[in-house]
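In response to reviewer comment 3 from the previous cycle, which asked for concrete evidence that the modeling workflow produces usable outputs, we include below a single protein chain processed end to end. The sequence was submitted unchanged, and the resulting structure tokens are shown without manual editing.
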Amino acid sequence: MSRQLSWSAERTELYHYRDRNKTEVDLVLENRRGQVVAIEVKAASTVRAEDFRGLRHLAERLGDDFRLGIVLYTGGSTLPFGPKLRAIPVSALWQLQPRAGADA
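The workflow returned the following structure tokens.
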């Protein structure tokens, strides 16, 4: 992930989040404006609401700076789990279409 971020035109920092209650999020990406995308990685073909526990906690703490929470899983469908929360198949990382005008 950090190698991918080095290619980005927008400077983004990569963190792992864990608080004293052991609530954690695997990957936290923060841009210069303080906007955050958080990613939880699960080795499961199904996703449950409780898989979003850390993401929901982080969203509450960050308020409007929390832009999106993603659970990557081995299933085949993108699923909504509330405002700004999605379950996305890990395979989608290799199926993304470049933006118009982006360098190949």
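The chain has one domain: 2-93. We consider this sufficient to address the reviewer's concern, and the full set will be provided in the supplementary archive.
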